[in-house]
Give the backbone structure.
Amino acid sequence: MKNMLRLSASAGVLLLTAGTAFADCGIAAGSVRILSNDFDALRLVNKTAEECASGTVTVTSNPTAEHKNLQVPALSISPAEYTVAVVANNSIVPLLNDDLIRPLDDLVAQYGQDLMPNQLIKIDGKVMAIAFMGNSQHLFYRKDILDKAGIAEPKSYEDILVAAKAIKDAGLMEYPLAASDKPGWDLAAEFVNMYLGTGGEFFTPGSAALAIDNPDGMKTLEIMKAMTAYMDPDYLTFDASGIQAEYEAGNVAIMNEWGSIAGAILDDEGAADGVVANTVLAAAPTVNGGTIPAVALWWDGFAIAKNISDEDAAASFQAMVHAISPATVAANPDVATWLVKGFEPGPAAVGVIATANAGARAYPMQPYMGLLHTALSSELAEFMAGSESAEQALADVKAAYETAAKEGGFL
Amino acid sequence: MRPLPFYFALTTRGRAVPHRTFFAFILPSIVAMLLFIALPIVSVIVQSFYIEHQQVLVEVENCQPFGGCTKTVRVDAAATAEIKASDPLGRFNGLGTYLNRSHLAVDEIGVIFASNTGLGDIVARIYNLPFYKALAFTLAFCAIVTPLAMLLGFAIALAVDALPRLTKGPVIFFSLLPMIITPLIGSLILYWMINPQGILGATLQQIFHDPNLSLRGSPALTWLTLLFYGVWSNAPFSFVVFYAGLQTVPGDTLESAMIDGASRWERIRYVIIPHLAPLATFVALVQVMDNFRVFEPIVGFSAEANATSLSWLVYNDLSGDSQLFGSAGATSVLTIIGIIILLTPVLLRTWREFNQKVV
């Protein structure tokens, strides 16, 4: 469902960019094969990279939601199936763990004049990936509904709970809140977001020992549960596209939703009357008296495979640099929150930028974070459904994580 | 539903075939089964005894667009690759993975039995363990869906058999639709229909005068929905087989029963059911196997919060940000053992019947 929504939204993007094939990217020869996730902005990047194709240069791309499952096996073989892996905070980790991507310092020096220093993802002093867009969940709210309830813009989750009560008591909406609480990746991400806002650390520094079994963890669960009192009773079946649909239908007043979906919500399609005109994007809320937004910041970037020829690596790097050039970004300011030089944020990027400026933390890159995310994704469901205590839920997460981390060789 | 292995065709008909012909006939199947079924199972079993090597971790400086540079732990890829090269399967863990919390949870169960506040507490705490939670739903699904789907299928078969010739074709086609639709698509269609804004969900709210009624909210209603879906999607298989079986009921016997004054019910009870009994064994066998690996409806109905199955556990281990192959292997082996235990009585019975016929 998610992909279908994105597909329809992206058709326009593709039409706009399809006319400018065969740009001169200065590549002599080589093969560029891109593996990426599947959403608007990345399809635009892939399409722009494909402009570099010429008599001696081939460019192919495979945008797929299954990219995380494909990337490790596809880059393990030699020569690798893909020369470029488009990655994010979390998906670069398996590639680093298995040493499947190459340092880019030489290529940056040679072809990366347009890159800004903060685009370089440096690990142990070496550039391992080039970030080109930022993303995060952030606040979307309906100004008309909040005005009617006499509520100002909520700055914290505590404010949101007060606002929700006011909206419900005023009879404006039955279920004013929504969150992507579907057990699985989404529910775990909600926990990670909220916990980041408390300022707590997930692991004991320098080790894989879990550290969420503390008052911050309890507070996180308490707020997550308190929010559900103002949500549609089906809240455990809503993922990010589910709440997007609810919001566009005019059933929701306040939600935290992905910045990358903002463009699709603010466009003229699919929303009930008055929703788009009254939608305000703002930084993600803080929690528990904290000062930073309770949300994880994400970057999307590209990495170049190790098991390919230097010629293909250079061609791939050049094609990707062309794909994320300031010219591309200037022509498509509303598609993403670009991290590229000269980007003038459009209305859809306001939320992510406000969130980043308010000092939100990045999604953790520890090699065992994925195991914790999986443990959270299945063990929080019963608590959220109301059939388990918060203490038990945290104990279950800890037990599930430790079992997995032992099997993964981290504990 | 899917092509049946050769041995069903042979054993259920119980026909004696010369050994050499029999062997030549099944050789390609045996080779294919060894390659595509036996070998992968062996590889899964081997994998389930191993876990990852101890990872070599180092703390390095990590710079990114947000938050600048921080010290972060990462895997020392070169050192880890060296260990992997010397022992590619990983660390031998014996039955460790089978006994850990994600599977049989032996230690946890020991603790539960050592200190508890009564039977309810024991059940609740065991149900809280992922494997037993999944097993509970899987077994319930098998035990409830199999007989109900067979009953429904049999009822449809009887009804269709009584229809006039002209209407039979279209009715059979529509009765088979649930089986023709891919399970994932079928469950998604039903899932959207039971959405409170969907046709079924809204109708139910009207009928029960409860604007908050949602089939997706509570565990009990989620189970009910999944079981309903299971019966809906499994009934056509029983229907097809029973309908074919009905065509073989000897007309003479039925006629003499009618002359003796047997009612329709008595004819079904004393002629048709005994005639179809061997077929019912076969249908039960296939359905139990099918239902034991229930998976698609859980994903389709977004029911993970309230119902999981053994196959879903395997899926959960292999998808997501990090994969646990040993854990998935162990769950797969436990699933196979579960199917063997469930099928043993039926297989034993079939074997005995087969032997009787040969002698």
